[in-house]
Amino acid sequence: MEKYIDIEYQLHVLLECNHTLLNQVEILLNRVDQQTIAPTTEWLDGNDVCRILKIYPRTLQVYCNKNILPFRRLGGKVFFSKTDIEATLEAKKF
């Protein structure tokens, strides 16, 4: 009888852990959904932006550090929205 109670308790604990884990996964998935980049957005890397703006990579880095150009970091690489670059050019922020 004691083994049955112990197994039942362990099963209950395991189910609680599973429920907690599922809740955490759901929270993470919601965060990813909120941060998902629209697939219709055209993204440029640093080389493309330097070519378009006719600037050096170090200048681009300064613009990013000063929040002159909005960017997104994905997997250690920096990307720029083409529409953001065009809007920055039109506003003549630099």
Automatic annotation (TrEMBL):
InterPro entries cross-referenced by the UniProt entry = DNA-bd_dom_put_sf, HTH_17
Q: Name one Pfam family in it.
A: HTH_17
Q: Where is the Helix-turn-helix domain?
A: 43-92
Please give the superkingdom of this protein's source. Answer: Bacteria
Protein known as: Helix-turn-helix domain-containing protein
